[in-house]
Amino acid sequence: MKKKIKIKINGKLNIIDDKIKLSVLIQNLKVPLKKVAIELNKEIMDKKKLNKIYLKKDDKIEIVHFIGGG
Amino acid sequence: MRECAKAIKLSGADIVTVAVRRVNITDKKKPLLMDFIDPKKITYLPNTAGCFNSDEALRTLRLAREIGGWKLVKLEVLGDKKNLFPEMIETLKSTEILTREGFKVMVYCNDDPLMAKRLENVGAAAIMPLAAPIGSGLGIQNKVNIGIIRNQTRLPLIIDAGLGQASDATIAMELGCDGVLVNTAIAKAKKPFEMAEAFKNAVVAGRQSFLSGRIEKKLLGSASSPRKGII
């Protein structure tokens, strides 16, 4: 059985397979990459380099977009 | 969101402020703002509404830049939860940092001419003083200060927050402002679409009035009909 790790996505606990790339996670979540920004442990990620990052235990990911509001 | 897009169209607005918030990853069917308001047709102005210190504001705007590559942003650092007044020390500090990072920063600020000058000195792209507390609908409380700020700066001057009805926008424009930023006065009006249109007309009227050069104020009456030929 594959090893699992716990991470947080937008404040919610998620259990995912170990050794998963950030790009794969985003793909699985079906998030429109062009319309969002991604932060990993408070560091803004270059969207072109998501396939170089492997997720680790206790990573905190924020995926944000624009909503109306002034 | 459809209603919001319609009101924006009726108001003739060129810019719409947007907030940076978490994507709902469990309900992907939720519509996105960009599906209703085309960022190619209207300028999205990412803003830091809800931030209470410089760090939060900087984090928000850096993320905003990553979403769409925008450099033009609205900075709003609040210091007071009750009246939503801007925290000007943090605002000044953030304006300086963001400008250095290449952002063009439109700054929500107090109607204080000295602070407006300091913001200009650290590189603000636009000065956006409040008319009155956000959402209060009180209209411009300190016309003298807005007038002084107008006379001291060539930067775009936009009234941000506190307007309550269309005539408030006319007053702002007659003071020489370059625009107004309105949400609550339209969104919470009984008839938002009609109010959006009223604001558009009010802005146009105020601008024309400003450019037309108003008459001098006098304390004495002066008749507009000639005395000659009186019966």
Structure overview:
The complex is a heterodimer of chains A (70) and B (231). Chain A has 70 residues and is mainly beta. In chain A, 11% of the residues lie in helices and 39% in strands. A 5-stranded mixed beta sheet of chain A has the order 2-1-5-3-4, with no helix packed on it. Chain A starts with a strand and ends with a strand. With 231 residues, chain B is α/β, with parallel strands linked by helices. Chain B has 9 helices and 7 strands, in the order H-E-H-E-H-E-H-E-H-E-H-E-H-E-H-H. Chain B has helices at residues 2-11, 33-36, 54-68, 88-100, 113-121, 143-152, 166-174, 184-187, 192-212; strands spanning 15-22, 43-47, 72-75, 104-109, 126-129, 158-160, 179-181. In chain B, the strands form 3 sheets. In chain B, strands 3-4-5 form a 3-stranded parallel beta sheet, covered by helices on one side. In chain B, helix 7 links the parallel strand 6 (158-160) and strand 7. In chain B, helix 7 (166-174) runs parallel beside helix 9. Chain B is globular, with a radius of gyration of 20 Å. The chains are: A mainly beta (70), B alpha/beta (231). Chains A and B meet through strand 3 and strand 5 of A and strand 1, strand 2 and helix 3 of B.
- How can the largest sheet of chain A be summarized? 5 strands, mixed
Task: Kindly report the oligomeric state of this protein.
Answer: heterodimer
How far do the termini of chain B sit from each other?
64 Å
From the helix content, strand content and strand pairing of chain B, which structural class follows?
alpha/beta
Q: How would you classify the helix and strand content of chain A by structural class?
A: mainly beta
Helix segment tally of chain B: 9
Mean pLDDT of chain B: 90
Strand arrangement, major sheet of chain B = 3-4-5
Share of helical residues of chain B: 40-55%
CATH homologous superfamily placement of chain A: Beta-grasp domain
- The N- to C-terminal Cα distance of chain A equals 49 Å
What is the CATH C level class of chain A, in words? Alpha Beta
Architecture of chain B in CATH?
Alpha-Beta Barrel
Q: Indicate how many domains the architecture of chain B comprises.
A: 1
* CATH level 3 topology of chain B: TIM Barrel
> Strand percentage of chain A, roughly?
35-45%
